[in-house]
Amino acid sequence: xxxxxxxxxxxxxxxxxxxxxxxxxxxxxxxxxxxxxxxxxxxxxxxxxxxxxxxxxxxxxxxxxxxxxxxxxxxxxxxxxxxxxxxxxxxxxxxxxxxxxxxxxxxx
Length: 108
Prior knowledge:
This protein is an all-alpha fold. It is built from 4 helices and no strands.
């Protein structure tokens, strides 16, 4: 199992944002909005969603974006918190799934 601290997620998300911005953004802060501060248009947002899903398999951001897109609440910090929480849930569920598989059939 890979441990993903919020600091590691923040670094990877910041790097992804810099890559998507093609060098126009050199410094990313947690308070920056994807749409307002980084000026991500629909194409860049799709790259962001796809890049995030490649980094964190099984984590989709569409629900997060719907909830946070209004009023510049789509910040780097809020997406980092969302991903870190989702990764924690996934990690917590994995041992339960494997322990059920590992039990012998007569114990189920």
